[in-house]
Amino acid sequence: MNKVSIYNFTYDKLTSFLEQHNINKFVSKQIFDWLYKKQVSSFEEMTNISKKNIELLNNNFIIDDLEEIKKQIDPVDETTKFLFKLSDGNKVESVIMKFDYGYSACVSSQVGCNMGCKFCASGKLKKVRNLEVNEMVLQIVKLNKYLKETKNERLSSFVVMGIGEPFDNYNNLIDFLDIAKDRKAIEIGSRHITVSTSGLVHNIKKWADSQSQVNLAISLHAPNDEVRSQLMPVNNTYNIKQLMEAIDYYHSKNNRRITIEYLLIDGINDKEEHAYELIDLLKNRLCYVNLIPYNSIDESGFKRSKNVKKFFDILNKHNITCTIRQERGKNISAACGQLRAKENSKV
Ligand code: SAH
Ligand code: SF4
Fold first, then answer.
1. What is the pTM of this model?
2. How far is the CA of 177 from the centre of ligand 2 (A)?
């Protein structure tokens, strides 16, 4: 029988497995405690679990790990980028960033990405496969272990903004977030987690129905279909009108503010007229705009906008709440949109 990673199991799923074997659900609490709080690496170390139950666990599960194959630390801002190897040899990247309020992580949701955004390094690698629940959980577990060992700290927040489109891996994402939020497991509150999507409308609606308290960010990047379709092929499937309807649907279920990500690229989407179009689009919606300075990737031919501050001022003047994303990890290609397992061919 094929053994599976125990990190794939939410508390409820582990509990129902145990109940099928007539084991009290209290045992899943003990197992979670050993896994996530004490971070043991074998079932034998779970000293308050009976021999018989340890045997059952060993027969069905493994406690797996991600192999760290590379770590780079930005000498200026301490941003730390990890390259992890998965059990089938594929690789993913995760990043730790230090902010005034604490440490935050950026994790990946897929190997590669199929959305094909023209400005993004991750999108240059076609999707190989979705990450399994354990592979997302283990990114956080590994980063927390690193912070504990090196600084006696832990992550206070994370974003799912690494490689991949999280809403193209919806079911695994939901179980991962369940484990991330769970007080018995990773214990990072919903409000300290953000999921970013390029605009998969069907799953924005599903997410709205779930009434998740996790923050939602939407990569808009353009105020009209003409520009957006040029940058993001997803716009040919779900255009801006459909995206705005999905945002309104979300707000009919949930009064949480949505983050609108807007990447500023020189001469493409950063003109004054674009700012005014964006204001029209967002003025009656519960959103705030996060302006992202474009990080150049070799192949794209796009350049960083010189109008970031001007664009910001126009939005601000028209009462659109707006921030400019702080840049992190520039010196180690760990900034937004630059993540890619480029060592693929070398390691
Ligand atoms: N696939 C999801 C989440 C990962 S991308 C999404 O697209 O939302 C995370 C963010 O980084 C997105 O807003 C994306 O548009 C942005 N990004 C991509 N390439 C970038 C680049 N070269 N410079 C700056 N931000 C970039
Ligand atoms: Fe994929 Fe997001 Fe990059 Fe677009 S920006 S290619 S959706 S990772």
1. 0.96
2. 20
